[in-house]
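Schema walk-through. Below, the input block comes first and the output block second. Nothing else is stored per chain. Lengths vary across the set, and this one has 135 residues.
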Amino acid sequence: MSGFWEYTLIETAARYSVVVLCLVVFMAIFELVTSYNNWKEIKEGNLAVAMATGGKIFGIANIFRFSIEHNDSLIQTMGWGLFGFILLLSGYFIYEFLTPSFKIDEEIARDNRAVGFISLIISVGLSYVIGANII
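--- output ---
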């Protein structure tokens, strides 16, 4: 019985470590594709940026939740997590494309909370759709 607990603890720690590392890398990529500095804006109290960033963090974590739930190996978990992130990132670009009357990044940088909230909801919603398709 002790071997079971030891294996489960090690597996949990390994998955946790990989997901945190992937989250940091994926958030750095999001930082590169946005025209504003997420953490600087959040530090200055920009709620729209905080909502959009929070949605991205939740979205990535939720995709990994589905990936962990449906895959036995760490490599499969990472692969599906990466694929899910690419889909989430493409959703971000589609959102920007579908709103030609204004620029999403500029509105969020200006603390337009309505745009920040919709960004949060899009990230969360897409993460559920992406996660539901992970096998």
